[in-house]
Amino acid sequence: MGSKKRARWGVMLGAAGLLFFGLAKVTAFSEKEVVKPGGAPADTNAAASADGKPQGKVVYLTFDDGPSEWTGQFLDVLKQNNIKATFFMQGSNLKRTELQGQVRRAVREGHYVGGHSMTHQYKKLYEEKQFVPEMKQTLSLIRQITGENPHLVRPPYGSSPGLNDKRLRDQIAQAGIKVWDWTIDSNDWKLKGHPNEIVDNIKKQTKADLEVVLMHEKPQTLQVLPEIIDFYKQKGYKFAVYDETKHFHLNFMKDHRL
Fold this sequence. Notes:
Elements: H1 3-33, E1 58-66, H2 71-80, E2 86-89, H3 91-94, H4 100-108, E3 112-115, H5 122-127, H6 131-146, E4 152-153, H7 166-174, E5 178-179, E6 184-185, H8 195-205, E7 210-216, H9 219-234, E8 238-240
Parallel strand pairs: 1-2, 1-7, 1-8, 2-3, 4-5, 6-7
Helix pairs in contact: 8-9
Organism: Paenibacillus ehimensis
GO molecular function, one term: hydrolase activity
Protein name: Polysaccharide deacetylase family protein
């Protein structure tokens, strides 16, 4: 091979070597940038939904203690406003065959129906440790009535102090049951004849981008439901319904298993 050809090959090999070295450094730098201290790749979506909670201003309207003689009217108001809500229904009411049609209607119209125990009795649920058996029975009733297979429940009186006992929460987690409390308590159940106070309570407590409003199937609540809906619309909130595929923990015990 001539001296000129040897020189040409030398230059080409040298350039290729520099290119390979540069690419190796860039690759190493890129990998270093996307690896967490523990060695796992960073979640590029973590900032958008770090704990599964929806982003932006979102409100969940939730209703306890149904089904009732007013369930159909609640569904009417929600339908008129194109809003899906989350219902937590009680086993003793679910057994009433004359009310089961409204439970099916709720599911058919896109609402979520979860459990709220069979008896709603504090002593039985928490002191006598019947929380899981009662919730299983309630969820089974919902499944029989609607064909759905829900896993979310709301503890009567809230998870605190009833679920302070970790052993009870262990049973709930093992049963695959999820628990939701609330961020806003309307206290509507005790405001018969004072519906405007329900609205005031909700307005005063609305402070965060994500709110879960506790209400009950009561006539005084039904009376002001349109006003409550208008309030959140004016505040720029979107209305959401619970979705099991996008569960996020919302219990006073801050137990992430639930």
